[in-house]
Amino acid sequence: MRPILRSINSYYTNRIEGQHTSPTDIDRALNAGMSNDRRIARLQRLALAHMQVEEQLELESLDESRTRLFSPEWVQSIHRNLYMALPE
Asked: From first to last of its 88 residues, what are the pLDDT tens digits of the chain?
């Protein structure tokens, strides 16, 4: 269930931020089917990076206190990990 929710979270988060990746394109990217269209491929990479970081955070957050999860340092680390996961 978690992988499906990560995909859904990625879709809606990116949509809110103006990055309109279709669920079909996300699913294709998950199955190594990157688009030949550079714009779509960029959005697919963003979706994959988002899901990768979310999975990493799920594991890391198990050992963190609730207070730390909302600290500026934690939020900064989330963004840092997301941008490090992107090739561009």
From this structure: 888 999 999 999 888 888 888 999 999 999 988 999 999 999 999 999 999 988 988 887 777 677 777 889 888 988 888 888 887 6
pTM of the model: 0.78
56: left (phi over 0), alpha (psi -120 to 50) or beta: alpha
Each residue of 57-75: b (16+ CB within 10 Å) or e? beeeeeeeeeeeeeeeeee
DSSP 19: -
